[in-house]
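Morning, I've got a small favour to ask if you have a moment. It would help a lot if you went through both lines with me. Thanks so much in advance, here it is.

***
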Amino acid sequence: MNFDFIKNQLLAMTAIWSFCLVALLLFGWNGNAIAGELSERLANFPQWEKLTSVQPASGDLAYPEWMAGSWQVTSTLVDLVAPLAPDIVTPGFDTNRKKLNQAVSFLVRFIPEKSAVTRLKIFPKIDKKTTILIADRGFNSLNLARAYLGDQAVLSVKVDPNSPNRQITLLRGERQLVSVVTARATETTSDGKFITTEVFQQLFKGGSRPYFNSVESTTAYRQLSTSHPAIQADQVTAVYLSPQDPDYFAAGSKPVALYRYRLEFFPSQLPTTP
């Protein structure tokens, strides 16, 4: 198996890992961004630099209740930019350009967080609105990875039982992608959009040498009045060089690649329980 091809495809997938990896402080600090900062960031695409208002990741991301259930998601790459080209271009950027305007479809689901379900069983009279809705990270990540790479290329996805912020995607040939969420912020706009930003570190293992990068994914979800689709999302991924990269200081705080996706969620009859 060509590890460089797999690595580049996983890099392109980064924009939609937020279904599976991102987290939010559920107790204490709530991770809210400065009012309007995230929506303004999307509006200013592709003039981006590293965010400074994100906070360390802890716990699991709570999604709005209108995202509950199972969904057939269609993801389409609608734009990509290499801000520092031709001096600095990430591996696979030109290859990913061929994916422009090509839709990829996969299943995802959003479920009650287990500890919240346990609390409801012990205290059935508590307000059910306190139930926390989270992404089924392992299920979503596996479907996403196989949609991009094929069923045979992706063996499994393992989420750390002690932290929803760390997961490993196991690939054929004893290769793997380790993804760790390190920081995030959220924002709810006056028109009802739910916006998240997640920053995470990625390590590709199994090739001739390990490959590191830093990624930020910003997503604005919007509930629609129809079911075809029921939810739309605007998502941008910014890829930054890691300190291990020889061009790290030349890039500074600027991303070396930006990918913009349109996501559409259609209701699915898939059972909502894992």
